[in-house]
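Hi V.,

Quick status before I head out on leave. The structure for the redesign project is tokenized and pasted below; the design run finished overnight.
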């Protein structure tokens, strides 16, 4: 049981780190323009000359603000769930379940789902004046975090402290 709890804890920490990286880094979409590489994230539009400019959001594209908000919420809920797991690990009686931690991780999972789905629907292939645009590693990390947070939340909900 101790090995299972340690494994869940390690995967949870890895999920938090990957959520931070995917939200902060600016490689959600990558494209090329002539010989320059252009990457777009949630916050900046960067080119291969290491110059970045802030993404401008018109009132019509409030969906970018929604993606930013849901990714930040997912980080917050994941960190709260990690703290709650540690608190419940030492305070719950034997045989109790980690319901609160699992519920918080399900909310984190839902925030990731909404944020990445909005980005997929609205911004896929949307780097202007580029060819060969494709998803970057941050987008892929966000989907990996989606899977991990769901698995972790289900494990928390069915896990008994023995």
């Amino acid at each position: 049981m101790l090995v299972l709890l340690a494994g869940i804890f390690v995967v949870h920490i890895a999920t938090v780190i990957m959520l931070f990286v995917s939200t902060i880094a600016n490689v959600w979409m990558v494209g090329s323009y002539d010989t320059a590489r252009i990457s777009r994230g949630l916050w900046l539009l960067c080119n291969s000359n290491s110059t970045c400019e802030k993404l401008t959001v018109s009132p019509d594209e409030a969906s970018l603000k929604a993606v930013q908000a849901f990714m930040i919420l997912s980080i917050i809920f994941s960190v709260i769930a990690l703290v709650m797991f540690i608190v419940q690990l030492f305070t719950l009686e034997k045989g109790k379940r980690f319901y609160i931690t699992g519920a918080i991780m399900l909310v984190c999972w839902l925030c990731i789902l909404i944020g990445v789905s909005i980005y997929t629907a609205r911004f896929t292939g949307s780097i202007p004046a580029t060819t060969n645009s494709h998803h970057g590693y941050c987008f892929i990390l966000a989907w990996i975090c989606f899977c991990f947070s769901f698995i972790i939340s289900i494990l928390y909900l069915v896990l008994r402290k023995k």
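Above is the designed sequence. The chain is about 60% helix and 15% strand.

G. will cover questions while I'm gone.

Best,
W.
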